[in-house]
Amino acid sequence: MHVSIERSGCISCGLCASTCPEVFRIGDDGLAEVHQQPDSGLEDGAREAAENCPVSVIYVD
């Protein structure tokens, strides 16, 4: 699994970081970022964050 964020569309709501903080965080610029690719134990949380992103800028491959 590979996770990415289209940061230019991020609205900094923080939902991804609160849903799966092991994978996502809010960067110094205030936008969400992937700070660790998910291992098998974090895949569900990463998918949940992507599905619930209000602007649909999180991609899971």
From TrEMBL:
User: Which species is this record about?
Assistant: Intestinimonas massiliensis
PANTHER family registered for this protein in UniProt:
FERREDOXIN
Keywords (alphabetical) are: Electron transport, Iron, Iron-sulfur, Metal-binding, Transport
- Superkingdom assignment: Bacteria
Q: Which PROSITE patterns match?
A: 4FE4S_FER_1, 4FE4S_FER_2
Q: Which Pfam families match?
A: Fer4_13
- Asked if the record carries the keyword Signal, the reply is no
Its recorded name reads: Ferredoxin
Please provide, alphabetically and separated by semicolons, the GO molecular function terms listed in this UniProt record.
electron transfer activity; iron ion binding; iron-sulfur cluster binding
Do you know which InterPro entries this protein is assigned to? 3Fe4S_ferredoxin, 4Fe4S_Fe-S-bd, 4Fe4S_Fe_S_CS, Fe-S_cluster_ET
Instruction: Give residue ranges for domain 4Fe-4S ferredoxin-type.
Output: 1-29
Coiled coil ranges (UniProt) are none
**Gene3D superfamilies per the UniProt record, alphabetical:** 3.30.70.20
Keyword Ligase in record: no
Its biological function? Ferredoxins are iron-sulfur proteins that transfer electrons in a wide variety of metabolic reactions.
